[in-house]
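Summary for the steering committee. One of the milestones for this cycle was to obtain a three-dimensional model of the protein with 1,6-di-O-phosphono-beta-D-fructofuranose bound, which we needed before selecting residues for the alanine scan. The sequence and ligand used are listed below.
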Amino acid sequence: MIKSPLQIARESYVPKMPKSLQGTVKIVEGKKTQSVADQAEIEKMFPNTYGMPVITFEAGSEKKEYPAVNVGVILSGGQAPGGHNVISGLFDGLKKLNSKSKLYGFLGGPSGLVDNQYTELTADVVNHYRNTGGFDIIGSGRTKLEEEAQYQKVIENCKALNINALVVIGGDDSNTNACVLAEYFLQKKTGIQVIGVPKTIDGDLKNEVVETSFGFDTACKVYSELIGNIQRDANSAKKYYHFIKLMGRSASHITLECALQTQPNITIISEEVEKKGMTLDEVISSIVDVVVKRADRGENFGVVLIPEGLVEFIPAMKTLISELNDLLAHFDIDALSVESKRERRELVAEKLSPESAEVFLSLPNSFANQLLLDRDPHGNVQVSMIETEKLLIDMVKAKTKKMKKAGEFDGKFSGQPHFFGYEGRCASPSNFDADYCYTLGFTASLLIEEGKSGYMASVKNLTAPADQWIPGGAPITMMMNMEKRHGQMKPVIQKALVDLNGKPFNKLVQHREEWAVNTMYVYPGPIQYFGPASVCDQPTHTLRLEQGK
Ligand code: FBP
């Protein structure tokens, strides 16, 4: 494989680690925990993993002997920068604690565990991937493990390799799965532990014990570079409105962070749209207001940031999507014998409530059909396939055209759609993500050696220099609540949406009117890997604001 000069230089980067992990480590257990909501139900469903204490690892003085262990690891769900460093940190941690320990990588995500597709991760393999983006070391997938037959297969395959513990590197759904597996393994007394690692560019796996998920930092920096480039183009050509949809599935954290980094003219935050109960028309009017104000100043260009999950937060659309989710869970729309997509839409509308049917039929045909696309294995709409940016451009165009005819608008409107998501998911991890991921992996090795199961590796104090970070573990059950999935109530990790009372959102609110009319773009440029810490090692604005920095 031919490597770029940057790849070669990054191979020798040594991730920074907390001081407490650099020598002998001692485990400190905190108080008993409880789930964020629905305590009685969650406790009943997780009798073995409920209520466990939060753990921190501190510098110790007594050298401990750790047994050799065999560990399996999977990467689960969407790619996020830094996954390879979690594996490097896990590998180095296991080997440091006992050089005879072995690490196996199951291929293609959770399905590899069931189908027994694996490879041993030796030093040669791991070294090849240190500090690189991507999940290609073992691949990833979205298969959901939910059937007892699958669990039995996993046990059989782990027993064949003498595996003592599994590490699941994933988002909220994958870590929910990890907890279900941990509970099952304990009930069946298999002796196999399960440890989760918080991954997702979406930034929605965070809570009092997990400050941020890995990958969010790098992905936002990549998107912000691209947004900055587009802003500079918009400000040079002065002829287009760029509508940029940003990944993030439900939560708008990526959009908010990119807005704080780049200061665009309009930033839509789904959580605010929902709280205000805005209709699609009201969202359009809010964009048109800015277009008109800018036109009055002779500026017929701009940049609009749109969170990927927006349509699910417009109340009427949310109800419609929820009805469609329930319908599609039991009903095969592909089996409908219809001549055209329009006819199929009408047949589907008959199965919805009158209100949702009206909304569904009022949408442009192509857009309505995107809402019928297959759900992911966790029952979620695949929002990355819904072209909200194009829908908004079309609607703003129609409205400004009408206003022009009525003499209410004297400017021009020409929209360019963009969607940034895959551009950032496999980027070379920023120093922050490289360090954070390595520490998470190393911490997972300690949780395993300390015999823990049903825990997520956690690293706190992340706005301080890495040597002051606080590694530890948190019981996954403490992050859970009950939610409707595939039409049924299920225990799941509670997603962290944008907090409308939080400091990052407040900062946007304080500045957005100014950013809307005045052109105050910031151009962050590409991620820097070598140079002063003030340029290379800064965490996200979100994390800094949340921690009062
Ligand atoms: P995870 O939650 O699994 O980390 O995935 C995040 C994400 O990148 C979302 O932002 C996006 O909606 C989704 O994955 C797209 O995934 P896919 O390409 O599998 O449809």
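Key point for the committee: Residues 185 and 192 are 6 Å apart (CA to CA).
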